[in-house]
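Blinded run. Sample ID left blank on purpose so nobody reads anything into the name before looking at the predicted structure. Input follows.
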Amino acid sequence: MTMRTDTIVDDYLTALEEVTRSLPRPAIQQAVGILYECWVRGGTVFTLGNGGSASTASHLACDLAKATALPGRRRLKALALVDNVPLVSAWTNDSGFGSVFAEQLEPWLRAEDVLVALSVHGGSGEGDAGPWSQNLGRALALARSRGARVIGLSGFGGGRLGDEADVCIVVPAGEEPLGTPVVESLHVAVHHLLCVALRQRIADAGPDGPDGRRDCGYLPGHSQPG
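Blinded prediction complete.
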């Protein structure tokens, strides 16, 4: 795709608008449901990604933990596996960059937890260091072995995340050079949507929680109605 300087602003905004209209709404709804179930079970959401997706993973964990908090309700536990730089560098130094997510998850990951993995190409492709996103692949394998759920945010054709995640929200971008920035931009928009929708699901559950389970979602020490 050849870009022209005099049309780049319109080209980018038009591409963003067109791809937004094509976002997979059923997959987004399904992802909200998985996150809600994680909250119900008292699980933890772990977010992960590389490059620009690492920054989105960090932002998403922040918003899942803070923007979904409601007075008198148990808060969702969310952690970004990209934020502990000393630990990431330690595992990279000793075991290679492919180890950094799985080794962090090893002592923590449980069946009630959820991974949210972000990758523009879904782990497909190859570079100077071999296959892209080897660290995502190892984290996905650990999640499967523990029975944890996986939500993917990917782009283009979905890649490995599209094949292996329980649900994958694929941003159907077009050709480069606009493809990658459009995918990354819409991953941020989707992550905000997930948080807004999840907060509403938690609010709609009411103080007794889903199905009348009064202990669900209540903070210890808060009086319960009735």
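Unblinding after everyone has recorded impressions. Residues 14 and 38 are 36 Å apart (CA to CA).
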